[in-house]
Specification:
- The structure is a single chain.
- Helix 2 crosses helix 3.
- It is elongated and about 60 Å long.
- 91% of the residues lie in helices and 0% in strands.
- The chain has one domain.
- It has 76 residues and is mainly alpha-helical.
């Protein structure tokens, strides 16, 4: 198959209005994800400010576990 044949089949497979619909849907989902991410980060920062010692202990514990898992995986 040539490139022109592939282009013709691709155009027959997906219509222009379908492409626009897909673009709009993906754009909307992306915008929603960004908004939700900002909300979660803001809430996380608020919790860290309200409970600084608990946050530090939690981060230390997670860091320890990640280090332990990494050392096991690398065989050191």
């Amino acid at each position: 198959m040539t490139s022109k044949t592939n282009d013709k089949h691709a155009k027959d497979f997906i219509k222009d209005d379908q492409v626009e619909n897909i673009i709009n849907t993906v754009s909307s989902v992306s915008d929603d994800a960004v908004d939700k991410s900002r909300e979660v980060v803001a809430k996380s920062v608020q919790v860290a400010k309200e409970y600084p010692i608990h946050t530090a202990v939690g981060v230390g514990a997670v860091g320890f576990l990640v280090g332990l898992a990494t050392s096991k995986l690398l065989g050191k």
